Amino acid sequence: MIYFKNFRLNTWLLNPFWMIVFLLYNPIQVSSQQRNTQLKVYGHFQYNYDDLQDKGADSYFSLGEQDFFVTSNLTDHLSFLGETVVKYDNSTSSKFAPSIERAQIKYDYFKNHSIIIGKMHTPVNYWNDNFHHGRYWYPTIDRPSSFSYLIPLHSLGIRFQGQNLGKLRFGYDFCATNSIASTDIFDSALNKALMLATHIKPTDEIYVGLSYYNDYLNSNQPGAHTGHGNGNPNYKGSINYELVCMSFKYSGKHLEFLSESSYNHNTSDSLGNAENYSQFNYIGWRFKEKNVAYGLFDFMDMSEKELHTTPVNIIKTGIGFKHEVGTVCTVKFQIERLESGDDHLFHNHNSTRYDARFQLAYVF
Amino acid sequence: MSFRSNIALLAVGLLLQLSLRLHGQKLTGITVIGNNLGLKSMSEQQTIDYFKARNNLWPSNKPVLVCLPATQSAEAVEVCSKLYGKTVTEVQKFWLAEVFKGRSRSPHFAESDEEMIEFVRKNPGAIAAFINERGLAIPQELQLQIVN
Fold this sequence. Notes:
The complex is a heterodimer of chains A (364) and B (148). Chain A has 364 residues and is mainly beta.
């Protein structure tokens, strides 16, 4: 009797236990085969030869990320996807630490429309929404340089997704997520980061995407969801962060092309507007089905007024060769020239280096 | 027959051949089966779209679960070529990518026709394609008609 006297309906309904029970058993009826939990492992090894202008050359092998990728069909409309990566971490004794990169529940509620809740890769551009941590999928050895400075790599929150709509196979992603400055368990900001991404796939070979991302940071500090390195530790004021990205991808029988363009506009109280640009181009020629000869151009120009992160300017050019071994592994060899500096438009170049890289990326 | 008549006949023949190529059946010889899809017949293009992971759900509101031949057998080569215009390896890679992107549910790669039929029978929303060279009996409830 005491139990019923203190019973509150909203508390009962919002109890996580009952919510999980509801999600798992609605719409019910899942055969054991359909649940179909699968584990895939992605990983890579690398050899690097870095010819540093001031320090001389370095030659070394490196153990890359080991990516444990799990999917499971929970019910007819609910599915789970998780991507946990074990990667180099200098702060631990073993120098390696696990990191949850994606953990998301997807609910297919109507035709090709879905709701995704959890930690995901922010779908601001084609690369970040498709290749994730699987080096096996990367067309080149590394990600575009902008991913280390301008692109909010991860988001934790809710995402509304639609795909393959109409003849042009239109798709959208609308995300409301924790701030760039948040961690995986806490966000001090009341407002959320908002993102709208749209794309079309008029043919199997072509993808065109456009996105807008906005986050108002009360205090500029790097969180868990940014690829912005250590950010700018010298500035703790507010930042209005805006990002526009455009992607174009073509993958024909022989010709492959990917273009990732970004325009980042940051507004701070102290220095005002900072405008940053980045452009990444990849072009490849596939021959004998398994081989690709490619070239890359990676450019990033950051404003001297940039306060959100440390302003760095980069021009990287390279050529490479990729060989695919079935659906098991890819072998890539790449030679690149990297020019970088912290002055605007390279009036006084700080560093030029030539690197050779060899990468073995696998999946099983 | 005059020269002009010969040219006209040749032109008609070429046009007819081109027309047959354009409208010829892509999925001839392939047996497609499904379980509780909410439809009993589909066009060839619809069928290809479902196999290419362009839909999450069937009209029956069941999830789309694709089942394909796993081996490098002649049957698998033909199914992958007709449905996807790709080799078996390319199709396996296509699905590896789709699942990794988080856009589709994992497909089931079956080792035999019997395994395909059994998988579809046990899983509402499952669809499978194979050649059925041995003429295996398909249960009535799994039969699906592909129309042009």
